[in-house]
Design a protein that fits this description.
By secondary structure, this protein is mostly helical. Helices cover about 40% and strands about 5% of the residues. The chain has four helices and two strands; from the N terminus they run ααβαβα. Helix 3 (about 65-70) links the parallel strand 1 (about 60) and strand 2. Helix 1 packs across helix 4 (about 95-125) and helix 2 (about 30-35) crosses helix 4 (about 95-125).
């Protein structure tokens, strides 16, 4: 969801990659709640962070505590940012309760991405 919002909100200002420490598939509930905001992530694929070992980044953002603890170290100098969000894939309950959980996390991610973009453009206006 973070990749989707960053691509959608920042346009071509960033080259965006996303990956997980235990990738499976893009969760259908994530696709559904993102579509509700006009962001289509249905073509995204779940990738392992290990696919990007050796690649340099300006920023590495982890979005849940498990990822923060197990995220690989990438070469070069980059800013590491952590957003301590609950993993929506772990949502329990009825379909509607799980959907509500995904919506809540989606909205938290959207706010974090907007703040991140604002921070980048304020700190580096020529970016």
């Amino acid at each position: 969801m973070a990749e989707g919002f960053l691509r959608h909100m920042a346009g071509d200002k960033f080259e965006v990659f996303s990956a997980g420490v235990k990738p499976t598939q893009v969760n259908p509930l994530a696709i559904k709640v993102m579509a509700e905001t006009g962001v289509d992530i249905s073509k995204h694929r779940s990738k392992s962070a290990m696919e990007f070992i050796g690649q340099q980044f300006d920023y590495v953002i982890t979005v849940c505590d498990n990822a923060k603890q197990t995220c690989p170290v990438f070469p070069g100098k980059y800013e590491k940012i952590h957003w301590s969000l609950e993993d929506p894939a772990e949502a329990q309950g009825s379909d509607e309760e799980r959907l509500a959980f995904f919506r809540r996390i989606r909205d938290e991610i959207k706010n974090k991405v907007a703040a991140f973009i604002g921070m980048i453009f304020i700190e580096s206006p020529g970016y």
